UniProtKB/TrEMBL annotation:
GO cellular component entries: membrane
Organism in which the protein naturally occurs: Quercus lobata (Valley oak)
Compartments, as annotated in UniProt: Membrane
Nodulin-like domain sequence ranges: 2-235
Region (Disordered), start-end ranges: 246-271
Occurrences of domain NFD4 C-terminal (ranges): 296-512
Pfam family for this entry, one: NFD4_C
Protein name as it appears in the record: Nodulin-like domain-containing protein
Parts of the chain that traverse the membrane: 55-76, 121-144, 150-170, 182-205, 217-235, 334-350, 371-389, 395-415, 485-504
SUPFAM superfamilies reported for this sequence: MFS general substrate transporter
Gene3D superfamilies: MFS general substrate transporter like domains
Keywords, in A-Z order: Membrane, Transmembrane, Transmembrane helix
Membrane association type: Multi-pass membrane protein
Amino acid sequence: MAGAGATYIYGIYSKQIQKTLGYDEDAMNKITLYRDVGANVAIFAGLIAEVVPTWVVTLIGAAMNFGGYFMIWRAVTGKIAKPKVWHMCAYIAIGTNSQNFANTAALVTCVKNFPESRGVVLGLMKGLVGLSGAILTQIFLGMYEDDLNSLILLIGWLPAAVSVVFVFTLRTMKTERQPNELKVFLLFFYSTIVLAFYLMIMTLLEKYVTMGNAVHSKSAIVVTVLLFLPLYIVFKEERTLWKNKKERENPSPEMTVEKSEDSEPKQLAEEPKGSCFANIFNKPERGEDHGILQAILSVDMLFIFVISLCGYGTSLTAIDQFGRIGKAQGYSDRLVGSIITLVSIWNYYGRVYSGFVSELLLMKYKLPRSTMMTVVLFISGIGMLFVAFPEIPFAFYVASVLIGFSFGAQVPLNLAMISEFFGLKYYSTLFNCAQLISPLGSFLLNAKLTKSLYLKEATKDLIAKGVDTSSVKDPTCIGHHCFRLSFSILAMVAFFGAFAALLLSKRTKEFYKGDIYRKYRVKEDEAYKRYKGETYTMFREDSKAN
């Protein structure tokens, strides 16, 4: 997951593509559009994951990642003739779409392995994706310094190599839940917090201090060490589990009890997979496994779509416009660049904290995740108002924190709700379906609303100055009024999303009051009983032999 976010540094290597290949703005806009299409149309990865093993999904993603970015690298280094625009669009779409295969393979597998800690798992996983841009940047600077051509090559081979190395490690496992599971995840959480803090410090220092190759090389080593730090936790836990297993396989005679009916080996009934489109209008109860169309056509999914449209749409718009917002308010390019960098860090904190906090609130108070989503979208709306009314002291800084944090917090909450409402049978497809809302929200609220209103305000300024608007291709707006109307509307959209989340919370309140993870514990209990029965049988046979 730490290598599955190359789209976050597209702004760095896209300039190199334009510079070396001489594409005009229209061509670059088309390439950017296909980048967004590739990054967000993840339904193909989901559907493929329904019919092939996880390792195949992982290898497909690795091949697409290397193939797409390798062709871009060959183009910018002159190893092939200058590609036509549609060729470059295809390369970038293939490269960015590959990350959906990595996301699907890792997320779905880990949620199925840890169903009772899915909020925590999703927060950690998506948090690392949020950090991946900064991670790849540090490794790039350590290996290649400022050679942007090599950056394209790096994001082609490194994520692919990681996928190949761990291709068989990533698998669904049928095991009983460990009593200290949450504690172990907290240790993972602390290690990623250290990594995020280090990346934040290094990224800010690079904005204000000139660093040499030696410093960058050492920084890349530190990042790599911090990335692999959780392996120490894994080795420690595996050693403990191995010792416990040895003790259970060699029970002492005084610990042996008569075999009861419950310890008889039991065979779990195989659940027929069936057609993923069967019984569309004969929906199971909330929390049970739904078919794909059963879930998509449900009222619960409609609420999630509305919440995602309002939440993702407004947040993506704000993040995309932060550069113009800073310029309109008269901040320096260096300061604006630092703020944009910090937004990605707040995004990470939002992802991991919402995952952990929502899981704890669910366990302790049976609080629906949509209740927390209500709070998150309300915070996002407040952040939009700080942009709309920049006269408030420190408005730009506060807005960056609130919007970045709330945007990150939405991701694990949405993904967890989908898994809880509709089951895990077709989770790989369903969570990728919900992701399709992101580009739609961004298109409506960013391209059609915010950019249009900004252009209108900039044109008004030119007319007021007596400038012929037809002679200015890309007018710039300076002042507090530039984003007042657009971000006031975005705030209202975010508040509407919060209201929709509140309605969903009321609708699912009784569902969350129950034991939503009971069916997973039943399966674990059955597996444990089978294990106990087998252990008892082995012990009796050994006793008779002796």
